[in-house]
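FORM 7B: Structural annotation worksheet

SECTION A. Query
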Amino acid sequence: MNDLSELIVQFIKQAKSGELTTAQYPREWGGLKMKVSFGQGMPARIPWISFTAPEISVSKGIYPVYLYYKDLKTLILAYGVSETAESPISWPVEIINNIQTVGAFFDKDVPRYGSSFMFKAYKVEINGDKVIFTNHDNKNEATGKDLDSDLITLIEYYKKVVALPNSPAVANINQGLFYMEKQLEDFIIHNWEKTELGKRFDLIIEEGEPLSQQYKTDIGPIDILAKDKRTNSYVVIELKKNQTSDDTVGQIARYMGWIKDVKKDADVSGVIIAGDYDKKLDYALSIVPNVEVYLYKVDFTLEEFKGVK
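SECTION B. Predicted structure
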């Protein structure tokens, strides 16, 4: 793993110059894809360097990222969150609930990337050919080794979150859940009768066509729409994916409101499926009636292979 600090200095200088080319930067670092952007067609207000797992993209995922807020003379190393499209995975609840966002750090609306989470902040001073980084936390100058160490720490944590096989640490199975959420919806539908949901609710099938998954509405698709076996009322089922608890509760309430209005079902209920439960979700649900939570877990067993007889 080569030192990245010299490339960061080059990155800062180039951001000041307005040059947009990136061919001179490596495409891989630390076992991850590396991408540098200074803008397209014109210089971006916030150039960035991202590090993504093989199957994750900057436009739809989570990843370590450097964000250079030129106007604020600040370089942020962040738990990045894509802004272009909803990510199939999310940072663990320990990050979402306990780490401030970039927007909260600056205590103001920033042009972009305010929803990513803070890891480290460095004040940047350009003095001729020299670039000086100062740690925001202790006001000490950050050396090249400091920069490299900070990034390595974040990258190794990221590898455990997405359960990359080349991570030096053994990933906890629950951390791997964040990577598998994109398959969870399909799994639930295909195994409906074997789940707790299948015992209480029926999938919607009309003229032989299954309609429940990604049920279309004029305010967006519902992850799964079902019907209560006992009351025949609609049940809106949403997966908590790459969202805060507030976003999830707001989303399911919106869809329930749509069902109540369009389908004329005043008894519509909701189910949130999540990998974990937190106090924010608990408080949010305390004022939203008829919504319950299911937690999913992944389990597996190993059996000795005794050969073919």
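SECTION C. Observations
The CA atoms of residues 38 and 47 lie 5 Å apart. The chain is about 30% helix and 25% strand.

SECTION D. Sign-off
Analyst initials: ____
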